[in-house]
Amino acid sequence: MKKYNFNAGPSILPQVTIDQTAKAIIDINGSGMSIMEISHRSKDFEAILDEAVSLFKEILNIPQGYSVLFLGGGASMQFCMVPFNLFEKKAAYLNTGTWASKAIKEAKLFGETIEVASSKDANFSYIPKDYVVPADADYFHITTNNTIFGTEIHTDLDSSVPLVADMSSDIFSRPIDVSKYALIYGGAQKNLAPAGLAFVIVKDELLGKVSRQIPSMLDYRTHIKEGSMFNTPPVVPIFAALQTLKWLKQMGGLKVMEKINKEKAALLYDEIDRNKLFKGTAAIEDRSLMNICFVMNEKYISLEAEFQALADSKGIVGIKGHRSVGGFRASTYNALPKESVQVLVDAMKEFEQKHLV
Ligand SMILES: *Cc1c(COP(=O)(O)O)cnc(C)c1O
Question: Which of 68, 105, 259, 342 is 20 to 30 A distant from 51 in Cα terms?
Answer without folding.
Answer: 259
